[in-house]
Amino acid sequence: MTGTPSLSAREWYERAIAAEQRGAKDEAERIITQGLGEHPNEAALHDSAGNLAMRRGEYALAAQRFAAAARLSPSHLPFAINVAIAQTQAGAPEAALAALVPHEQAGRRDARYCSTRANAARLAGDLAQAARWYDLCLTLDPNHPRGLAGRARVALERAERDALARIDLALRSQQSDPHLWLSRAQALDATGHTAEARALAQQIADQAPSWQPGLDFLAQLRLGAGESDFASHFEDAARKAPGDPNIAIAHIAALGAGDETLAARERATAARAAFPGIEQFALLEAVYASAVGEDERAERAMAALSTDSLDRALHEARHALRTANWVGAEAALARAREFAPFDVSAWALTGLLWRVTDPEKAAWLHEQEGLVQLLPLVDGDAVMPPAIALLGRLHDSSAFPLGQSLRGGTQTRGILFDRTEPTLADLKGAILSTVESYRETLPARDPTHPLLRYRSTKWRLNGSWSVRLRSGGDHHAPHIHPQGILSSALYLMLPPPDKDGSQGTLELGRPAPDLRLDLPPLHRIAPKEGHLALFPSTLYHGTTAFGSGMRMTTAFDVIARGGLGDGTDDDGSRLE
């Protein structure tokens, strides 16, 4: 823009703030945008514009504006910190770390930098780095609220022995923080103080009836205790806050996760009547009506929707598969892939459809040589015995998880490889080496394939856990892991073999029973101790039951570093 600016940068900012304070947010945005156009080289104005966007919840826009300020004043540490905070809020913690690393030398003397970097590292899945930066933050400022709370949370997620003490320390100055109280309840549960955890979780639900994390955790505890009415406290919460639709949404989700599908449908129908202006309840009624076979009700509810979304397209595809409407399923899945071209759930359902309608495409998706492998664990003889001993102790204090594929058995809490025990670090290292061997033998990179498009990108683990099943019917129901590109099962302990070797078999490609598709597995893997099964996350998978003994596995998902949508890097980097 040329000519003399009509207003100074400061005046543009003051006008925008005045508009914001009187509630005219759109006007404030128009003013600050015009000001940026007249003063494109004013770093402070870009920074102020970023703060306006942050207060509106437009985090990606805020990150862009903070980044512009940082480019204009590259040595100004607060601008870099603001970039990282906005990127973290926008769901890009790795980008936040990249923005902070060049300022490390100056940042080590700044508690806000240290706390921001620690939070980004935690959300990026690097808890060891997060612990280091939170510790440095607290060295600089022992009473830093975010540092205390963040370090306590990291201690809980890593199962550090002093996690409860750290949480209590943070609570001394942050008594009103519900996340810290929930962390305390989780720490009590993890250390075997189940009754205290239950009492605290109930107190949280009573005092914050609209807070979903508290309601969900109480449901988990009640399910673990074997209570058939594990979700009844959602009704208590709804009576205390009758105008809050989010309680009903959380209640329906908990019932669905606990396999109470008919109850979930009934609750969705009631919520739809209570909140007629909220379309999500029509979608939820359709979802659960379809799942229990009430097809006409499902179709009526779906027809009442006026907006489209990935979630709607996926559920319409599931319903079409259940009713053998192949044309409708293809149309719904095409819409889903338009919303998210490499969504794992969409491709999993597409694979099932193609097995009925286009076997050649189905074979390309899931039957190419090398996509499914059973490999010996690298250094298995050395790393497995201590891991088995440790995991056995962890399972002794674990419970049946809400919303998982288990039918019986126990699953370890949290992310297994975030724990600090050296034994688990050794096991993780062996797994990473084995996964790298898998990747080296995959077919060539194919940018149109939901797994092979990532063949040459950086990979990292995303979630990890251990499952222990006992004889008498314990098994995994067919399911998928929609947050990964590659899924797994490492066999640590197996029951004695039966005569035909079929017990506990891993079945890949058998649909979930609720989809009403009579399709056999594409692959059957007989478990073998010390071996790691690896397969595309777009394959439904489950296990058969076994007649005697006990079975223990460790599992994890793999994602492309940067997320499921990142498939353009072809540098051949190794797994991280």
UniProtKB/TrEMBL annotation:
UniProt keyword Signal, yes or no: no
TPR repeats mapped onto the chain: 43-76
Domain of life (superkingdom): Bacteria
Alphabetized SUPFAM superfamilies for the sequence: TPR-like (SSF48452)
Organism: Alteriqipengyuania abyssalis
One Pfam family cited in the UniProt record for this chain: 2OG-FeII_Oxy_5
Protein name from the UniProt record: Tetratricopeptide repeat protein
Keyword annotations of the record: TPR repeat
